[in-house]
Amino acid sequence: MTTDPAPARRRPTHRKGRATLTRASVGQAALDFLGRHGPAELTMRALATELGVSPRALYNYVEDRRDLITVAAEIFQSEWRPPTLDPAPDRWRETLRAYCHDLRAHYRRHPGMTTLALSENITMARHPVMLRNVDALIGFFTEIGGTGLPPREAYLACMETIRQIVGFVEFQDRPHDRPPEDLDPAELRQTPPPWLREGADDLPHLRRAAEDQHSELPDEVFEFTLDVLVDGIAATAVKRRDL
Amino acid sequence: MTTDPAPARRRPTHRKGRATLTRASVGQAALDFLGRHGPAELTMRALATELGVSPRALYNYVEDRRDLITVAAEIFQSEWRPPTLDPAPDRWRETLRAYCHDLRAHYRRHPGMTTLALSENITMARHPVMLRNVDALIGFFTEIGGTGLPPREAYLACMETIRQIVGFVEFQDRPHDRPPEDLDPAELRQTPPPWLREGADDLPHLRRAAEDQHSELPDEVFEFTLDVLVDGIAATAVKRRDL
DNA sequence: ACCTGAACACCGTTCAAGT
DNA sequence: ACCTGAACACCGTTCAAGT
């Protein structure tokens, strides 16, 4: 069907009916696996079974499980193309918000990735594509609102933004998208929640919040997070300008 | 030495020379263990060895490993006594900052706790003491700066604050306090870092940030985080007042 | 060169039996 | 009532041997 441009025949592309493994293909398989199952289920043996090879075969392409997760994380990072940012005074807020929405959606697509990297002490954001994205985001902050932020504050604002998105996905979206299995799904929508049922007479604010149906909708909570982030950065920008 | 007030003798306090196990003592031992070792090292077998019993003995007090971690998390929460907050217009910012510093220090003392609870899908903040703390923090936000925040915004501000602290400890402090073992300690202080060495010609902002010695000091980064958080919440308060 | 199968040292958890 | 010891099914990883 396709016209292959006579590739270098260094390495067979197939073996025993399946495509030959590579470091990249093994990492991609791990990333796909994380989109379907929880991080704890990603074992060398399970991945090997899915690829139709013995567990030992994976060790020809990755050093160990930690290395496997590192490859998956790199592919994960390289897959994201950020929306364009506009530092103009009347545009930077909305484009930054759109940027954050898109980044949140990307992390949310592979819920286990960040937690897994965290628990394995893997340093993320090393992939060239991600480094370029980070550099562009810092550049954006050095120009926002006309005056822009000084270099150091722009760097901090960039890291702050990324950390907030990751934190939101891990601590808000993930428990919401994959609630613990030991409680009934019906129990989730009860108001007030069972742990607030008794002895909550001295917890008036929590009780009121628990009765508010909107309180736990992640999308609405995320808007508040963006409000605080954007306004907080704007205030910092004003403060630095007045110095 | 101490005068014991004739306790009810329902249960022996010692057995074979060591104190009798209880659900609380096992949980406390797990929490202590997490202060000394990484979360992955906390195994039923390792904890049993440290307590001088067989692994099976632990199952008389906790249902399984997940339950053990839940108990440890509850003890962890009950151990924190928050500093006092003052919502007065000229005081709320500084007292909120002090509050956040204290909470950060508490989480930092048991680095593995949050990550472990996260990876085991354990819902935190169920302990009565912590619920009271959360309620008080919401109450604080309903009164800040004279006008205060509406109930819903106060609740969101409370959750935002806690999430930011936890996110900071997990994503900033933990990698800094316990760097991955596969790179030399010397490599950490190099400027620019090795992953920025080549092909970084189109990464001017990252390069500049990497040369700035202050960029990676967690305490200074934390001040920026608090700047954004406090100013962001203040801006939200003003916005709501003007509506 | 790349794979398989067997093995080792770990893990959580359970069973049957001790005291 | 609470414990031990042995066992089971898992895991990451390695060794020796196949093709």
TrEMBL record, chains A, B:
GO terms for molecular function: DNA-binding transcription factor activity; transcription cis-regulatory region binding. Residues 43-62 bind DNA. InterPro entries: Homeodomain-like_sf, HTH-type_TetR-like_transc_reg, HTH_TetR, Repressor_TetR_C, Tet_transcr_reg_TetR-rel_C_sf. Gene3D superfamilies: Homeodomain-like, Tetracycline Repressor, domain 2. Residues 20-80 form the HTH tetR-type domain. Residues 173-200 are annotated as: Disordered. Keywords: DNA-binding, Transcription, Transcription regulation. GO terms for biological process: negative regulation of DNA-templated transcription. This is TetR/AcrR family transcriptional regulator.
